[in-house]
Amino acid sequence: MAEIEIYTSPFCGFCSAAKRLLDKKGVAYREIDVTTNSSERQEMTKRSGGSRTVPQIFVDGEHLGDCMEIMEMDADGELDTRLGL
Asked: pTM of the predicted model, to two decimals?
């Protein structure tokens, strides 16, 4: 199974939508709340190539993007492959 990480913040509608999609896929993920942890936010920004918005999703260390990007991957049938399903 792929290692999935999602950087989030509470009360973020896009974060909730991304987590719902991952939950629907039945995959486990590690959620990293960047709200009050500036070092985690800096790590997210660096890993994502400069993206500062949440969520940011990574699979096996590869940056997939934000909520809209994984939803587009899902619509195109690419997400399951990226998630190792």
From this structure: 0.94
